[in-house]
Amino acid sequence: MVNQFKKILVPLDGSRQSLKALDNALNLASLTDGVITGLHVIPHVPAGGPRTKAYDKQLLQEGKTITQNAKKIADKKRVKFNSRVVRGWPGLETVKIAKSGKYDHIVMSTTGTGSAKSNMLGSVSNYVLHKSHIPVYLIK
Q1: What whole-number distance in Å separates Cα of residue 10 and Cα of residue 132?
Q2: CA-based, 20 to 30 A from 10: which of 25, 47, 78, 127?
Q3: What domains are there in the chain, each with its CATH number?
């Protein structure tokens, strides 16, 4: 059981709910001497969408800020933390990275910065829950 929590993937969007998921993942990792990877996905905008170079740079900086803040939280709890900022559709990228990185678990919030209410399951968490081949812990 202890070795099952060695590599934990935590999708982060900067929302209060995603930080709550991070806190739960940090508690698990601290018990098992595990490593957390905080993942921020910059949403894909189709060709012809509103993205400009300046806006793209801002989104990248926001992603880095979100993961840097998460690392500071992890450091306070003395848990090893890695970060990744990628582009794409958040659900798909989370599942792909979980598989390719050979993670043990995904710990994520049921909702994030999207429009889902707190008593609903957001589209990203719903996708990850149904497509992931590893355990997914949803934090409300």
Answers
A1: 13
A2: 47
A3: 2-139 (3.40.50.620)
